[in-house]
Write a structure and sequence with these properties.
Shape: globular
Distance between the termini: 17 Å
CATH class: Alpha Beta
CATH architecture: 2-Layer Sandwich
Helix content: 25-40%
Oligomer: single chain
Number of strands: 6
CATH superfamily: START domain
Structural class: alpha+beta
CATH topology: Alpha-D-Glucose-1,6-Bisphosphate, Chain A, domain 4
Strand order of the largest sheet: 1-2-3-4-5-6
Order of helices and strands: HHEEEEEEH
Number of helices: 3
Radius of gyration: 15 Å
Largest sheet: 6 strands, antiparallel
Number of domains: 1
């Protein structure tokens, strides 16, 4: 699961607003996103810590947007994902909806990947 989440090319699979995410070297990621109906392009950063199974991400913008994700293995085939999001954005309800969609996408993707792994065995 952590390998999947830490690959920048997979970001659009679990951050629904992202349409493109390509590594640009040095922890930088070129992104395209649909933000409230408008197309946004730019650079973001993604830092991974395999030993602690954490991701940190963000982008330079007026909202001071950045976040952290930590994966904790609970039992074989079970993990807990904790997400912390920081933003100065005033529309808290919209941010909450996007976060809920992201968590739902994470759960769906993890479940689908687990089902595919079981089917291949």
């Amino acid at each position: 699961m952590f390998a999947f989440l830490s690959d920048p090319r997979n970001l659009p699979r679990y951050f629904p607003q992202l349409t493109v995410a390509e590594p640009a070297g040095g922890g930088e990621v070129r992104i395209e996103a649909d933000v409230q109906g408008r197309r946004v392009t730019g650079e973001a950063w993604l830092h991974t810590d395999d030993a602690h199974r954490t991701l940190a991400w963000g982008s330079e913008n007026e909202d001071n947007y950045h976040g952290e994700l930590r994966i904790t293995e609970r039992d074989p085939g079970t993990c807990e994902i904790a997400v912390v999001l920081h933003t100065d954005r005033a529309d808290g309800e919209q941010v909450q909806r996007v976060l809920e969609r992201t968590v739902a996408a994470l759960a769906h993707t993890a479940s689908a990947d687990t089902d595919a792994d079981v089917a291949q065995k």
